[in-house]
Specification:
Low-confidence stretches: none
Structural class: alpha/beta
Helix content: 40-55%
Order of helices and strands: EHEHEHEHHHEHEEHHEHE
Mean pLDDT: 90
Oligomer: single chain
Radius of gyration: 25 Å
Largest sheet: 5 strands, parallel
Number of strands: 9
Shape: elongated
Length: about 290
């Protein structure tokens, strides 16, 4: 079982880290009290065999105290339970955290005790130093936009190769039914020869060999697919590097029965051969 504890400075990105780890397949709990860590870990270990709790991440809020004996005791108990854990400490420069609080207009927890925002940030940094020293990984979010922040987490905690951390969905559709709302990339194949006008192919779909043979018997179909494959061979690694967890590629023709289905099917096979996790959908094929 993979067990990650996320701690660090307020405003540095702990909750954002947990949200991205959830995208990677972790079961995440935000703001878990320190006293519940070992009990929660025991529950996860008991259910790890089912696969539900094989990857777990929790954010624990220890900002209210000046000593961390309770946290360190919990970490020692995890080791006694033979649970291998990793402690991720998220931090940022004081001026960055101050700027984030001013932009979002959120309240730093320690300002409720009468400290100014700069004082609160500095006090918390000093108080968290013992936790920082015990961290397995330290992630400084200063100067990182969201995509680069996700990329750093992907480098630390991604599953297997980078390519396997992003799911690609290739879906065919008919323009007369509207473009899929979740599409990231949309390609129009209505310029290809239309099997609809061939009587024996009209009731077929792009998954049938007769339709595919008809379409790929034309040079423009093969040329288009080759250019599309070349473009995606460049784009997909860029999306992975930016920390994107899912990508939806939509291929459209008029009705979503023939051309888009055949091209989407061929493109799915190409992406799978490149080593990416890919799923194939045909939204309008049954209409």
């Amino acid at each position: 079982m993979e067990f990650i504890i996320i701690s660090g400075q307020s405003g540095a990105g702990k909750s954002s880290a947990a949200a991205f780890l959830e995208d990677l397949g972790f079961y995440c709990v935000d703001n878990l009290p320190v006293a519940l860590i070992t009990s929660f870990a025991g529950i996860c270990m008991a259910g790890a065999g089912t696969g539900k709790y094989s990857r777990v991440a929790l954010v624990t809020d220890i900002r209210g105290g000046q000593t961390f004996d309770e946290l360190f005791q919990a970490l020692d108990e995890l080791e006694n339970m033979a649970l291998r854990y990793r402690l991720l400490f998220v931090e940022a420069a004081d001026e960055v955290i101050i700027s984030r609080y001013k932009e979002t207009r959120h309240t730093h927890p320690l300002t409720r005790q009468g400290y100014s925002l700069p004082e609160a940030v500095q006090l918390e940094r000093v108080a968290l130093e013992p936790v920082r020293r015990r961290a397995s990984h330290i992630l400084n979010s200063t100067g990182l936009n969201l995509s680069k922040f996700r990329g750093e987490l992907l480098r630390l905690f991604g599953m297997g190769s980078l390519d396997e951390t992003m799911t690609v969905s290739v879906t065919s559709f008919g323009f007369k039914f509207g473009i899929p709302m979740d599409a990231d990339l949309v390609f129009d194949v209505r310029f290809l020869p239309n099997p609809f006008y061939i009587a024996e192919l009209r009731e077929c779909t792009g998954l049938e060999e007769a339709v595919r043979s008809f379409l790929f018997g034309y040079q423009q179909t093969n040329t288009f697919l080759r250019h599309l494959e070349e473009m995606l061979s460049f784009l997909l690694p860029q999306y992975v590097e930016e920390g994107k967890s899912s990508l939806v590629i939509a291929i459209g023709c008029t009705g979503g029965h023939h051309r888009s289905v055949a091209v989407a099917h061929a493109l799915t096979e190409y992406i799978r051969q490149k080593g990416y996790r890919v799923e194939e959908l045909h939204r309008d094929m049954g209409r």
